[in-house]
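If I may wish for something, please sit down with the protein I am sending here and say whether tokens and residues agree:
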Amino acid sequence: MMSPAMPTGGVLHFAHWQALAAALERTNAWLIYDAAMERIRFDDAPQIHPAALPGLRERTITVGSASKELRMIGWRVGWVVGPQRIMHDVHLVGLSNVVCQVGLAQEAVTAALRAADGDADVAAATKVWKERAELISRELSGYPLIPPHGGWSLLIRLRSDAHDTHRGIGATLHSRRGGRHRHGRLGSIGREIHPSGLRQRASRAPRRHPRPFRCPLGPTPRGESRGSRLPSRHINDQGTFQDECLARRLPQQQRKEDEMTSPLPRAAVHVQQRLASLGIPTEVRELTDSTRTAAEAAAALECEIGAIANSLIFMADGEPLLVMTSGAHRVRERALADRLRVGAINRASADLLREVTGQAIGGVAPVGHPEPLTTVIDESLELYDPIWAAAGTPRTVFSTSFEELVRVTGGRILPVT
């Protein structure tokens, strides 16, 4: 397991590790934790190391590396920490490794790890990577992009129309310079974006495309070492790329125009754009009557109250938790806390709700929040199709399916009563 993960950029939260701990305990399995990027996070939450959780400490093998956080790419220096009973076997695996670490490289990594400004350096680099991720996400807002929450890479969801989608992405990431095309990377090493689609990637024939340049989500530019100046020159004062990288800003400009011309409230427009980026072709509707409660929404939509997906914000052991519950149910907090194996679950205050969602009470949507939220989805919502959820304000809603709701939220399906 890795958090943040490659290539998704996903971050594992406390509830994820708890669920994993239960599964590992049942199967008596080891957990190999790749810690190469654990400090490269785009939120302010502290990194949760799995070995800190009961039940995982004695079965977690942590593998670290200098390549990612310290940008010491190619140095091939890492380390392994684990329970004493497994380290002899780990040592035997290391002896069989085809990569040998020279003494000079090991001394350099040791100096980097012991540097007094090490944490500040990683934090400064992470700030630049976050700016790059946000900018690429804005530029590709019209595509089914999965926003990263940390790390170096991101994914774009390709469906049956993958070839045409990839052509569009390639065009967006294109710029002409001196009559030649240049291609961009989304930050994942070797995962280049070609206008001709992913099929070129699978070809065994020699690639003859022009030399790729790095789009500003991946590692620091070649020649810039760990202690050198951070590569901010790729982004100008307005937060957009210089002409050597992304030159086209049409998706971002179109989004601004949509906000100005749409009759929907700004929060609802944001939710609709987020849904579109996740590949949900639905339309946000603004109703004349309030949908602040499930009963009001069901009456306005002339549907069963159980088909209303209420978005409720709780605090679970100090972490925000989004519970998507059927309008026909009331959340039993103690029972849900037991299922999630947390100490206590309590309803969030109005101020905290707005802080973690950026949306109004009675209008919290499943998506479109400033940061991703750990989500639980009421299993009874699967009985209804379609289901209706709020879209950022008390009077806006959208319809979706149970499967799509689970997909876009990454929610865990549980009984909530």
